[in-house]
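Dear Dr. V.,

Thank you for agreeing to look over these. As mentioned in my earlier message, I'm a first-year student in the group and I'm still getting used to reading structure tokens, so any feedback on how I've presented them would be very welcome. I ran two proteins. I've put each sequence directly above its structure. The first is here:
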Amino acid sequence: MSEVFFSDLEIPQPHYHLNVGSGSHSEQTAKVMTAFEPICNAEKPACVVVFGDVNSTLACSIVAKKLKLDVAHIEAGLRSGDREMPEEINRIVTDSISDLLFVTERSGRENLMREGHGKDSVFFVGHVMIDNLYHELSKLDDVPHCSSVVQQIRKKTSRYGVVTLHRPSNVDDEAVLRGIVDALNDISQSLDLVFAVHPRTRKMLDTYGIRFADQIIATEPLGYREFLSLWRDSLLVLTDSGGLQEESTALGIPCLTIRENTERPITIEEGTNTLVGSNPERIVAEARRVLVTPMNSDNKRVPEFWDGHASLRILNVLAKRYEF
């Protein structure tokens, strides 16, 4: 998948590929650490910049600090309060050893202050993912990007919702996954649904013999740009993804998050996001509410600093700190 994202997001090819691949959390973290350490020794950076909450975020942070290098964490301070989520452990540990912490929303700064970080190390800059979202939207407007998959979907329906689902808590347990799919099948009787099925989810659906209703259009995972071209015109997003909670808020599209908690509370407080958990009845009820009652424009505020300039704010802090 990485090549698709490098192409879609216009990211230059990296100087180094770690070639870690899949594996358990411990295996991935260990492989990233052993592959990244010689690169740091060779390059001798003044600062290692890490993003998000994945295993490589944690692994590269630990390597950097062991080598007495500064660490800057972009998307710092987010907390779900659920330590059963691997991402929550990655966030907490990475933040605890970072020298510069760039937060996307005020709750991130409040969390870090509560955990004892100094004000001089925390910077409220906004969200680079939203920077990228606006950039990609401009590309879609300039050169319409519509893959054959999206074209076929648009021929079938013009009124639809979009679904993504991949978290182990939702897809690994048969009863939970079956209940969520039952809810989606119910919703699809009123609104066509396009489900971009994650490989992990596809495996579990096949294992448990769970089937979609005819009104659910199941696709393989889509590249960023083609998926954006699809969901930006949807009436509803149903997801357990963190990024889609934020991106749908930025575009004012109703989002039902199939989780019991979120590390992105701003999407609920000021955005279009609603937590529905994995209870089928609640998922269906909230979907019907959204479809029957148009969202008030007052509830479509774009959060502070989600203006497309977060990356420049980060660059200014780094340039001042390291004099480049």
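The second protein is here, in the same arrangement:
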Amino acid sequence: MLQTRFHNRRAVQIENDFIRVTVTVEGGHIAEILEKTSGINPLWIPPWPSIEPSSYSPADHPEYGSDAESVLLSGIMGHNLCLDLFGPPSEAEAAAGLKVHGEAGIVLHDVMLEGNSLVTGCTLPIARLTFERRIRLAGRRILISETVENLSKLDRPIAWTQHVTLGPPFLERGKTQFRAPAVKSRALGEACGKPPEQILTSAASSSGYTAHLLDPASDRAWFFAHSPISNTCIGYVWNRADFPWLGIWEENHSRAGAPWNARTLTRGMEFSASPFPEPRKNMIERSSLFDTPCYRWISAKSKLHVEYYAAIASAAAIPESLNQFEELIYVK
């Protein structure tokens, strides 16, 4: 494990012959998954300067905006964890100090190396949860396991989202290709569904958010993204029962307010226990969509555990199936 600075942030790195992974100490963001052959990191690095969330204040940093999302935006990078909230807090929660997507993306994470695993963890004081993430490299794969513990004596519903966001130069408007096993889709704020094939193909032709139900006939779910300019493919693979939803969020130079300033191109591929980023009350009242739950329960004084992996490799074209992807990333 190497302690380093990454885009002005305290960070740690682990690497092997194929890839390098960088994690920020504050926020615990997986900020970099570098494919060494191409030199490409597909994950989004915002175009504005990044600061430690602990140093943010509305008075001193108006360039990040002035709402419940501003502290997160001051330090967000790449793969952000949303827990136990996915989306904005209610007005009352915001007044009490809760931020967009919860606390995990802005608090300090403890970092250590155990054997060949990078271990990060934090406590969420408002949510009364602890979180631990273990990262281990295996060839071209990044093996990730996560554990959430409920410190309270109450059973409760939680949102839990892997907010993976891709950016330039990997992301090119209308050129970067995507695949995922979605069977039903719905745009945020719309009552009717959309055909998944019309949304999942190429990047950043619009702005907005769509929720996609992943194939319930398969135990595993996934998404792949391929950059023609760099011949690089990244993918994530997880247990569908843990995260049955894939949210796709695009920003295509449409947000004019700070810190966006109409200059940002991104695509979020967000695998999740919830279909939409929305306040807690809305999530609970929605309850289910397409006969699938919109949140997870965590029992009092108990733990939940998930495992998934990311992988990256050189590729001339995007894989069309999970078998093709796993053949691509296999190291002989």
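From my reading of the second output: Residues 322-329 form the longest helix (8 residues). Helices lie at 70-75, 91-95, 280-286, 322-329. Does that match how you would interpret it?

Kind regards,
E.
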